[in-house]
Amino acid sequence: xxxxxxxxxxxxxxxxxxxxxxxxxxxxxxxxxxxxxxxxxxxxxxxxxxxxxxxxxxxxxxxxxxxxxxxxxxxxxxxxxxxxxxxxxxxxxxxxxxxxxxxxxxxxxxxxxxxxxxxxxxxxxxxxxxxxxxxxxxxxxxxxxxxxxxxxxxxxxxxxxxxxxxxxxxxxxxxxxxxxxxxxxxxxxxxxxxxxxxxxxxxxxxxxxxxxxxxxxxxxxxxxxxxxxxxxxxxxxxxxxxxxxxxxxxxxxxxxxxxxxxxxxxxxxxxxxxxxxxxxxxxxxxxxxx
Length: 290
What we know:
UBIAD1; transmembrane helix
């Protein structure tokens, strides 16, 4: 496989695509809805996700986190497939492209979008790099919840509507939990090697048993959120019902996570990202037909 494909990690891209899909679909029936803005915001999110993946590859190699003992998917820098300089430059290019695309969104959405753009870029760099890497201090799941949940859904809705909405906050929370679950799988798999590298991820801080409980909460809470939104009158029944069908898949993943560890968690990483996409797509289909 092409090393650049390995570097951008396509299996993780649903974490960016799912919330942007939902945020835009929530605004689909608004008179001012713009398909162009929807596509641009989606492109910006994907570029930021690619930048995050490249940053992880580069900074984890430079800090010594990635070694030959790594259990996860192949990292192109650590394995020597691509030089650190090439990966760093590709990361910078992705961030620059995201910023240039983001300028169009800032022009459309104003200063709130500018603030989100700055926060997103710092988040991309600060996840595994900088003086206080979020991933090394147990904040990776929090970052995923905030940036790939709340910011992504509410921000993309705001771009279309010019204001936030309760439905956007609810869906941002629901998808944020699913993306936090992706991060938790990654950190639980790497517990042994992360301990040696001095990282203190959430999984390390709470232990394997509690990590399994947290995963269960992360994949089931989204359904509680949307059901509560329906009962309180903020969300219509059809999209909640369709998204609820993915609960079957969530239960399957939770059962697998409850008795799996180490390298055996690798397939579950992609499957959890797939859950985000299935949940987002089913909800979006239901919303279209409301």
